Automatic annotation (TrEMBL):
Organism phylogeny: Bacteria, Raymondiibacteriota
Transmembrane segments: 12-31, 78-111, 142-162, 174-201, 213-232, 265-283, 290-308, 320-337, 344-362
Tree of life domain: Bacteria
Keywords: Membrane, Transmembrane, Transmembrane helix
Coiled coil: none
Protein name stated in the entry: Glycosyltransferase RgtA/B/C/D-like domain-containing protein
Length: 489
């Protein structure tokens, strides 16, 4: 081994150690707070809890139905049901840990395959580990991202790096594709499109494509087709599509630096600027290696043209945006300034990551106690009752509905009924009867109140307390901005 190789190995070892240390800090952030400020996480936990206890709970059977089929989205419920054996806290933190850590690991694998010798580019995924999809609770989508990057890396390796592919590798690929189908249809669609592009590129540049590669594409395309047929068949009848202009999508890029407060993540601006510069520098080699740019370019066009709502599927363009951001490092094809590029990437990403870790730790530290107060209040309520949640004001902090689903902890801790859980035709847990529910105080009608034993109020009780007293409710407990009223029997 010559001196240059030895020096390169040392640099790689330092890079890997730093990368692993950053992932350990993410794990610390997850374990640090008892309740993380993740919008939809309580609902995901509640659905998994119902799945786990359904066969032994008469109360759950009387209010819910369960149909476990291989639908998209079910991977998350399966993981949570397994993790539930370690307790609710273990399950919630375990799911968040898997979804956050899996992406940088899969990006590392993808970079190692697509850009051999430039593994340090995987650092570009670290500042994005805290993203709006995570805080909104789109865990299935993040799981799908990590699986999609692994699938794309394996397809790339099969098409462009291996002369002979073993049966074991084919089997591994098909298992990953099936898990991707179970995770989320959006990253599955991205994977199908990018796989088709790779096959087309191979056909144009290398000539004939053998039968096994055609089979590969047909299998992936078939799984994707089934996923979307199942998803859209069971969507609600009143589904509609909302479009937004391309200029609006470009303007929305400003949301990349907004989480809990307006433009609170300005520290990401140097990161995005640095990433853009790296891509621009690499454009000089696009003629020799156009495929990465074509793949990312197609996704950018999809982002600009995609609707902002398809039936129950809200803001699909955000999924596309973050997927392409994680994928962009494969476009860093420049080989002239590797030493300088490595220094810039490691320095920029480590500083941005540490700032993000510090900021989001402060955010979780400030919000977690309030969420814990609500959970403790709900935990003290009678078991197996029907609870009506009322929000006095918007339960959001800027873009994230921190308190939007806090009432789901009543289902988790006390096996109770709340009418606001996720219950669609493509999810395993569904309400037996459509809930009579509105989260606004104006909905406190006598006919509706008769169906509930408890009323959980987030915010001030002015104006509704007298109404509840009039209909035989009494104040059961109150802490901070939370109040619970219980029906007299």
């Amino acid at each position: 081994m010559n001196f240059k190789q030895h020096k390169n190995n040392i640099c790689n070892a330092i890079s890997y150690a730093g990368y692993g240390s950053c992932i350990l800090l993410v794990i610390f952030w997850i374990l640090h707070n008892e309740i993380l400020p993740i919008q939809d996480l309580p609902n995901h936990l509640a659905n998994a809890h119902i799945l786990l206890k359904y066969n032994t709970s008469f109360f759950f059977k009387s209010h819910f139905t369960v149909l476990v089929l291989p639908y998209p989205y079910i991977l998350q419920d399966m993981l949570l049901a397994l993790l539930m054996f370690g307790g609710i806290s273990f399950a919630s933190k375990g799911l968040v840990l898997i979804s956050m850590v899996a992406i940088p690991l899969s990006v590392f694998y993808m970079i190692k395959v697509v850009r051999p010798g430039k593994q340090y580019l995987c650092w570009l995924s670290l500042p994005l580990m805290w993203n709006i999809l995570l805080f909104k609770g789109n865990i299935n989508c993040l799981l799908g991202f990590s699986l999609a990057f692994s699938v794309l890396a394996m397809v790339w390796k099969i098409l462009f790096a291996l002369d002979k592919v073993s049966i074991k590798r084919w089997a591994g690929l098909f298992v990953l594709v099936f898990l991707l189908y179970l995770a989320h249809p959006a990253p599955l669609l991205f994977c199908i499109i990018l796989t088709a592009l790779m096959l087309l590129y191979k056909k144009i540049n290398l000539g004939h494509i053998s039968a096994k590669y055609r089979v590969l594409f047909l299998v992936i395309a078939s799984v994707g087709g089934v996923a979307f047929l199942v998803l859209f068949k069971y969507m609600s009848e009143d589904e509609n599509v909302h479009l937004a202009s391309e200029y609006g999508k470009i303007a929305e890029l400003a949301n990349l630096i907004t989480f809990f407060h307006k433009s609170d993540a300005l520290f990401l601006v140097p990161y995005f600027t640095g990433l853009a510069i790296l891509i621009i520098i690499s454009l000089q080699g696009i003629r020799n290696e156009p495929l990465p740019f074509i793949m990312c370019g197609i996704l950018i066009v999809m982002y600009l043209l995609s609707p902002v709502k398809i039936g129950d599927f809200i803001r699909p363009h955000e999924r596309i945006l973050y997927f392409v951001l994680f994928l962009l490092p494969i476009c860093c094809i420049n080989m002239k300034y590797i030493r300088l590029e490595r220094i810039v990437v490691l320095l920029l990403c480590s500083l941005t990551f540490l700032k993000a870790f510090h900021y989001f730790t402060i955010c979780s530290d400030s919000l977690s106690p309030s969420l814990k107060q609500a959970r403790n209040l709900l935990k003290a309520l009678p078991r197996e009752k029907r609870l009506l949640p009322i929000h006095r004001g918007l339960p959001y902090v800027e873009r994230i509905g921190v308190w939007a689903n806090i009432q789901a902890y009543y289902t988790i801790d006390n096996d109770g009924y709340v009418p606001s859980l996720f219950s669609t035709e493509y999810m395993p847990v569904r309400y037996r009867f459509k809930p009579d529910y509105s989260p606004y105080s104006s909905s406190l009608m006598p006919e509706r109140l008769k169906k509930y034993d408890l009323v959980f109020v987030w915010g001030k009780t002015d104006g509704i307390q007298d109404t509840l007293f009039r209909y035989d409710y009494f104040l059961h407990g109150q802490i901070a901005q939370y109040s619970v009223f219980c029906k007299k029997y």
